[in-house]
Design a protein that fits this description.
Strand order of the largest sheet: 2-3-4-5-6
Radius of gyration: 25 Å
Structural class: alpha+beta
Number of helices: 3
Amino acid sequence: MTKPATVEFSRPIDLERVTDVEVTHDIAATREECAALAARFGLLAIDKLEARIRLRRTRGRAELRLRGRIQADVTQACVVTLAPVGNTVDEEFTVLYGTAPESGDVEIDPEADSLWEPLPDGPLDVGELVAQEMVLALDPYPRAPGAVLDPGLKPTEAPEPKVNPFAVLAKLRKQPP
């Protein structure tokens, strides 16, 4: 996870204090943080952004398991009309943090319900993680009710092929003199 230069919603957690006993953190963005995140992610508004984060060490403190649940109310622009479209996010996610294997190869399982990240050296910013997970959960193509892209073009119709202006010259070139 790459962190932007300015983090609008920062909630660092000291990982040295996380043990094999699960700890829960409830976080919520302020109105100012919501406005800054909306601007960063190109949203019309974020009215609510809350998360419950559960952390615990696993594998003899070598790994960290983060489980979270995000609840957010956002307003996006319709991709057709640019009208405001309300969207509610209620998503659970899991991230496993650990050290990379000696070979440097990390196996990624696309079917897994969790993400693997390298264990950070310092504190873990769960606010930034929640902001990124919220954006990933949003509808990438929000549409207002009744919004139609182009009513004249049927989905089965293909656009007419473009005429090559050099096609006539190509025919002349093939004719014997």
